[in-house]
Amino acid sequence: VDDRILVALNSAASSLSFVGSAFIVLCYCLFKELRKFSFKLVFYLALSDMLCSFFSIVGDPSKGFFCYAQAYSTHFFCVASFLWTTTIAFTLHRTVVRHKTDVEDLEAMFHLYVWGTSLVMTVIRSFGHNHSLGAWCWIQTGRTGKAVHFITFYAPLWGAILYNGYTYFQVIRMLNNVTRMAVGMSDRSYQFDSRADMKALNRWGYYPLILIGSWAFGTINLIHDFIEPGHRIFWLSFLDVGTAALMGLFNSIAYGLNSSVRRAIYERLELFPDRFKRWLPSARSRNQPQSEMVSL
Prior knowledge:
This protein has 11 helices and 2 strands. The protein has helices at 2-30, 37-58, 64-96, 107-125, 142-185, 188-204, 208-227, 234-245, 247-256, 259-269, 274-277, and strands at residues 131-132, 139-140. The N and C termini lie far apart (50 Å). Helix 2 packs antiparallel against helix 3 (64-96) and helix 3 packs parallel to helix 5 (142-185). It is mostly helical. Strand 1 and strand 2 (139-140) form a beta hairpin. It is a multi-pass membrane protein.
């Protein structure tokens, strides 16, 4: 019964993530004005989340082949997802703090880093022993399996969280210093631009919390299973599966649904006949300044 509940929860949460990620992918494909390098990284992030959610939905714990297929696929694309967040953080840091303009030339290196690392981590994970089927497919039992899972997933995950947090801290501190200098120089026009930048980037400073919120319970659950193997706590597994499966939805809202996307959507809504516009969301924000990733 518990496994059926977890399977249903995983499918429902993964479906929400799939819809949110697919929306960002669709926006990138439909709206040419979004096809800038900054949003291209968000597109790759959303694509990874979408595929991770898709394979989470189609996996069937009752069938060995589909379960293992789900396990390899979700592990690969989930690792790719949080690695893409590090490329976004790196791009912001390189542009804002180091004042480099060569980030677009690094796209090939980003792909090699993300997909290559994801593949290596997925292959290494297959070395874990004593696999068994469960609600979250391909559960590795025994301390050896748990240790392999930690090394191939949670270690790089928390490394990405620490890197993103440190990077955003440096970016925000840099813009804070620039704002204070502008105040001292009484440069009102620059103060206005800096405030807009700070409002956006201060919000970006919370983005590492998405990964923490998505995987904190999973980390606790893994540590508990390592200490007391075979003694599962249902409510902890429930939170583990639910929050992890929602990562794609959280990323699509935080990274993808920015002012550029909203503006592109509102411009299309303006093409609707007047009699339909009163049923549509207000387009008041379509003329707001483009603050997200403005430095890029």
